Amino acid sequence: MTNFIFICGGVMSGVGKGTACASIGKILKSKGFRVTAMKIDPYLNVDAGTMNPIEHGEVFVMKDGTECDEDIGHYERFLDEEFDELNYLTSGKVYLSVIEKERALKYGGRCVEIVPDIPNEVIFRIEKLAKERKADFVLVEIGGTVGEYQNLLFLEAARMMRLKYPKNVLLIMVSYLPIPEKVGEMKTKPTQLAVRLLNEAGLQADIILGRSRVPLDEIRRRKISIFCNLQPEDVISAPDTENIYEIPLNLEKDNLGNRILKKLGKKPKPCDLRAWGKIVKNAFLAKKEVKIAIIGKYFESGNFVLMDSYISLIEAIKHAAWHLKLKPKIVWVSSEKYEKNKRALKELKEVDGVIIPGGFGKRGIEGKILAIEFCRKNKIPFLGICLGMQLAVVEFARNVCGFKKANSTEFEENCQNVIDILPEQKMLLKDQKYGGTMRKGDYDCEIKKGTLAFGAYKKTLIKERHRHRFEVNNDFREVLEKKGLIFSGINPQKNLVEIVEIKNHPFFIGVQFHPEFKTRFLNPHPLFLSFIKSSKK
Description:
Number of strands: 23
CATH topology of the largest domain: Rossmann fold
CATH superfamily of the largest domain: Class I glutamine amidotransferase (GATase) domain
Helix content: 25-40%
Shape: globular
Low-confidence stretches: none
Strand content: 15-25%
Number of domains: 2
């Protein structure tokens, strides 16, 4: 019998439900159980693909091309597994499915209602995931905060599942305990109110993870226990950490894994996190710094830097650096800065490597091209991802091949279109079919031996995840190659360029795919390992 653990959040958003869910999954997996996880987002978008990264954070892409919330990335990185559309659900997807079933008379002509039909659709999808994965545990993260109208139906699904499987459903609340600066004391009242709101939805938390700047003391633990109807040992301390990969180790200090097993009627089991702890120790002890500049445009929000737009990229850099016992330092650079002042490019000589990630739209493009030219000429290790790769081709075409009007048709219709859109994509855009229509998910890539790419991967056939509409135009490949651009990776099915590089440079690679989506804490992506090694030199 599969066990279902629902994870909800109290007091405020951004409390860490996603990393808590991933950490619980890691703990249970380290005890020998088969674990999978699902994220339920309350918004009406069918998927995350059409949302602005500044507003929503990174759009993560799974192997089947499903565009989803960044928390799925945390699940994959912690559990070291690949997920697909079964692991992701939104209100939009649920409502769309129920309406389509109603239109097809799947409800037998009866009146279709919000309750119970919407929660039942959610339950159907959770059970389907459990069956497909043959899971001992399904972790279900409910997006949003308890007390919001938007996620009420998902809490209702949890309540109904608790009635259906009374011995196999657990509810964990991740709640915030503030320490007001002028008061100087950790306050439990917001968590008490959050639990009361959960009670109003017909649910009682079995375990509370107390999120705060510092560990919970016994006074606060006892207070939460009394007023939230829990045993003291079911109040788990979850303090802030410098490194999110410490979280499973911290939670196990309070014996969380075995508390979960006991509540579900299972025997306690030892937890093997030795390999995990070793890399955490590497990260903690690392002293030698490697300085990487990320040149992008999705992190400026007023006076704040929002790193969530590039969360998988950041984790990929960290994973590779820590495995090499290096301390990663990330420098955020707005590409528009170089458009206003070319002399500012000199600052790139102060970093060890430069990454230009993916993105959409014309803003900041010329600044990125200037940065790529600077890296190429000054032998600074460079990794271009998706749009970063396309702009590397544009820069080479302009400044090495002499195609002064070289560009992508994404930014300029009448140009020397070294980057162009696929014919099938033109039809989709003409019909205004934007959502879920890009070239997405896993595609094959054949790598040429003797190239930088082969040196990184050590094999000739790989699979990587994509999310884009524009490609290198094959009409320009011959002339680009003659001038020294190497097409070291090709998709064999469509004959499309996947990897470009240049000779006589410590590291200059552009990839059409998103390698950051396949990095793992215990198994860094080979391309990032190779890039960080070159940057270290």
